[in-house]
Amino acid sequence: MTLWGGRFSSKLDEKAWALNTSLPIDRRLAAQDVRGSIAWAGALRKAGVLSAEEHTAIVTGLNAIAAEFASGTFTFSASDEDIHTAVERRLGDLIGTAAGKLHTGRSRNDQVATDFRLWLLETLPQLDAALHGLQSTLVSLAEQSRNVLMPGYTHLQRAQPVTLAHWLLSFFWPLQRDRDRLADLRERTAILPLGCGALAGTAFDIDRQALAATLGFTEPAPNSLDAVSDRDFAAEFLFDAAMAGLHLSRLSEDMVLYTSAEFGFFELSDAFSTGSSLMPQKKNPDLFELARGKSGALIGLLAGFMATLKGLPSSYDKDLQEDKAPVFQAVDTLLAILPVLAATLATMTVRPQKMLAAIDPTLLATDLADYLVRKGMPFREAHAAVGKAVQLAARKGIPLKDLELEEWQSIAPFEADVYAVFDPMEAVKRRTAEGGTSPAAVEKQIQKAKSILNQTLIGEKS
């Protein structure tokens, strides 16, 4: 069965059929297709297109089909071109000729756009919950590490000491931006295409406002030409997914480095590590490497889909059949990565002494400059003076903190209390401004993060 063909005298070539069919991809829209069809049947009944008996038969049949999909007993036919064909064909099997009235005033163009939007609207809460789960793990770990010190890096060079909690929370906020973007996307996705027909709208008296409300959309699309071809929501989702992948990749890159023997800040649980088929000693952070690698694939999905959209003329074109595969793949990728990374972090072992040992005295150079500033010296002069001290220690081959007091005083007005500057915990405690790394500032950050985590998730009722 096909939903077209009356003007054709022969069947589609077998190879052409294989290229044309979308069922292997859009079968994931089965539940949404049935749901949209039930709503459309109700709109046709209101418009007087269906009798009460026909409407009842159609809805009863569609509910039976929904049950078959839910139980996994639905049987697809070799002639099913797409999920819409499969549902309508099965409806005909169940109720007979009345099934043929369901597609009145409707096109697969507005139907698939509606199905796809419904699917994404129902999927966004799952992604939000998965991001929330990783955030929760980060906050929990941060609460345990307010006073654990580690070196902070810029340019992958040791820079200044920070707390481990501060580093962990530096990944909480990008994930929150990802969640905010998904919440914003929901508004633009909840626009109803159904009732726009193939491109020009429907000739029947369909109440599209009521139809939108029935399906949980905010409002009907205002222009039928735009509605059937609009895939901005899909492209926007792929951008959001790529950004989330980018954030996960940066976290993963740090974890790959910090679990190496050269750093040794963390050790991963055996349950979330892999080994080598050749080297018995290896314990590899493959899960983080996979997350890092898959972020590149997410960027590729976005770039590929944008290229598909770029050259299309107005209204619907079959190129848009390529919209669902990248979105499905992006969703599957994120839902696979997020819980694994959360579990991997939750079960790792932290090595505080390794991190503390990596805090070289030169990481307190900025604090030395601040020391001079507090004595009245302009910062630029203080910066230059400390630079000379660093150069002197390097020339002598000794740690910065081991310079003699006379050597300090030959450079700038340092006093005996200069050596107190080299306490890394005190250096961290001085960063009390909002957003800083001091335990006090981090505690405020933790409380703010926990407040966000207690807020309503996407799709939940407040």
Automatic annotation (TrEMBL):
* Catalytic reaction list: 2-(N(omega)-L-arginino)succinate = fumarate + L-arginine
One Pfam family cited in the UniProt record for this chain: Lyase_1
One GO MF annotation is: argininosuccinate lyase activity
Entry's localization field: Cytoplasm
UniProtKB keywords: Amino-acid biosynthesis, Arginine biosynthesis, Cytoplasm, Lyase
Which HAMAP family does this chain map to?
Answer: Arg_succ_lyase
Q: What is this protein called?
A: Argininosuccinate lyase
Origin species, per record, is Longilinea arvoryzae
